Amino acid sequence: MSIPEPATPRILIIDDNAASINVIARALAPEFGCEFALSGQEALARLTTGELPDLILLDLIMPEMDGEEVLHRLKSDLHTHDIPVIVITASNDPASEASALLAGAADFIHKPINPQVVRLRVGLHILLREREHKLSQIQQEIKDLAFYDPLTGLPNRCLLMDRLQNCTRLQDARAMLCIDLDHLKSVNDTLGDAMGDLDLLLQQVARRLTGCVRKHDTAVRLEGDKFMVVLTHISGPPEVIAAHARIVGEKILATLNAPYRLGDQDHSITASIGIALFDNNQTAVEDLLKRADLAMYRAKVGGHNRLCFFDPAMQSSPDADRT
C-alpha cells in the first residue's frame, strides 16, 4: 500500500502589481502552489466561496481597498481568522509595520522582493501552521482518550460525571437509566475465541442506544457491558418525567432485543434497566448513580429483560450492599 504524497501548501498572493506576483510565484514554485488576486475585493470574494489557502501574502499599498483593511477583515472573520498573513510592502515606515503586526499579521517582508527571503519565511510559517495543526490533533486525541470509550466511541464515566455536574447545576437532568446486558457470559461462551465478535456486539449495542435517545441526552459506556443514559430537558412534574423515562427504557429494551449479526450467525441478548429520577439537587450525583444501579439489579432479580424504577425501600434491602 503506497503512502499518499502530502498536499502542496496553497498560497494566495494579494497584490495589484502583476510583476510582483510573478516574482513571488517563481520564488515559491514548485514547493508551493500559488494563486493570486489583483485586489482586496477580489481576494475576499474568493475566500468566501473557494477552498481556503494555507497562507496569504498581502501587499499593503493597493487602490480602493488597501492591505490594512483586507487584513482587518480577514482577522475579523472566523472563517479566515486563523490563516497566517505575511504582509509585503515597499514602505519603510515602522509605524505601518507595527500597525500591521498588531492587526494580526504573522510576518513582514519588504520590497524589492528577495526570492530567497520570501521562500524561507513562507516555508517557516507553513511549518509552524502544520505543527499547530498536529498539536491540535494530539490534544483532541488526548481528550478523546480521557473522555470517550475507545471501543464504542461513547462518552465514558469521566465525561458522564462532568456532564452530570453541569446538568445538576443547571437543573437540566431529569432521569438516569442504568443498562446492563443480561447473560453476556453465555453469549461470550457461544462466541468462543472470537473476541472480536464480542467487541462488535458492544459496538452495535452502543449504536442502538444512541439511536434511542435525543441529541441532548447522553448515552455512556460505564464499563464492560454496563451502559448509562441520562435524560435531560423534560418539562413537567415527576410523574411526567417518569412516564417519559419509561417510554425511553421500553424503547431501549425492544431495540436491544433485536438479533445481532456477528460473523455468519445471529445472536440475541436482552438487558435489564434501572431508572432513578433526579430530585432538584437534593441527592449527590454518586448517590443517584447508586440508585440507578440498585434499581437495575432489582430488574435482574425480577427476571431480566425488564426495567425497574428506584424505590427508597430498596436502600434498606440486602441488595443495597452490592452498590
Fill in the keyword field for this structure.
Alpha-Beta Plaits, 5-stranded mixed β-sheet, 46% helix, 323 residues, alpha/beta, 12 strands, elongated, 2 domains, Rossmann fold, 5-stranded parallel β-sheet
Describe the protein's architecture and organization:
- The structure is a single chain.
- Helices cover 46% and strands 19% of the residues.
- It has 323 residues and is α/β, with parallel strands linked by helices.
- The protein folds into 2 domains: 10-145, Response regulator (Rossmann fold, 3-Layer(aba) Sandwich); 157-322, 2-Layer Sandwich (Alpha-Beta Plaits).
- β1 (10-14), α1 (18-28) and β2 (33-37) form a beta-alpha-beta unit.
- α1 crosses α5 (115-147) and α8 (195-212) packs antiparallel against α9 (238-257).
- It is elongated, with a radius of gyration of 30 Å.
- The two termini are 51 Å apart.
In short:
With 323 residues, the protein is α/β, with parallel strands linked by helices. The chain has two domains: 10-145, Response regulator (Rossmann fold, 3-Layer(aba) Sandwich); 157-322, Alpha-Beta Plaits (2-Layer Sandwich).
Q: What is the helix/strand order? A: EHEHEHEHEHHEHHEEHEEEHE
Portion of residues in helices?
40-55%
Cα distance, first to last residue?
51 Å
CATH class designation of the largest domain: Alpha Beta
Q: What CATH architecture of the largest domain do you see?
A: 2-Layer Sandwich
Using only CA atoms, what is the Rg?
A: 30 Å
The CATH superfamily label of the largest domain reads Reverse transcriptase/Diguanylate cyclase domain
Number of strands: 12
Structural class: alpha/beta
- Total domains: 2
Share of residues in strands? 15-25%
Count of alpha/pi helices: 10
What's the arrangement of strands in the largest beta sheet? 2-1-3-4-5
Indicate the overall shape: elongated
